[in-house]
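An example makes the point: we let one protein speak, the chain in one-letter code, the fold tokenised, and here it is:
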Amino acid sequence: PKEIATAAMTQVFKSMVESGTNNEIVVEIYPNGVLGNERESMEQVQTGVTQSYIASGGGMSIFYPLFSIVNIPFSITDYSVAYEVYDGPFGSELAKDIEVKTGFKVLAFGESGGFFQLTNSKRAVQKPEDMKGLKIRTMTIPIHMEFMRSLGASATPIAWAEVYTSLQTGVVDGQHNPAPIIKIGKLEEVQKYLSLTNHMYTPYVWVINSEWFNALTDQQKTVVEEAARVANIAGRGVNRLIETSDE
């Protein structure tokens, strides 16, 4: 969808790269998983079939299991801290280790939508005890599932494409996601309660094929890296606008 952060990121990136290289590099965008699921899309970047992909935290963890550590609940307190962490020395060292271990060069640590919030159809969640007995949809990330269980809820991994129907039919009572993702998924249609918990901040990882990148001229590398930096800022801006929107 055009209103999500990754759409803004890729459009800004395309514009800046093509104009900055006089169309020596042409960026083709394939949205909505048209080239395959996340594992397949990342494998295509590894093998050079495609050059770049914006991976979720779960997708990155498949290839770099240590990435799961960024899901520790309440480890990031606000957006200024998040940006300082992932745009600063920690992010730089993490990117280097990802490249060494996987072959993916990291262009940026982006956003799926910001901090995770909780929704459910049963009751308002105002304290940890209110979670007891709720069935919560999570991604297939162990820390996410264990966090829900630690609060007395049950955790059920369900693919995003099935989340709306699963909430609608009562397969699960609730789910957790950043506010822009909740809004884009129209989950308010099947969820009665929203709790602004800010309990996790899990960045997306924008990767590029290292061999392809290293074959660029120094000027082209500079253009690509600067385009990714600006595009990442644009994506964060879109998320903040969605969070504060009344629509």
About this structure: The first strand starts at residue 52 and ends at 55. Residues 218-244 form the longest helix (27 residues).
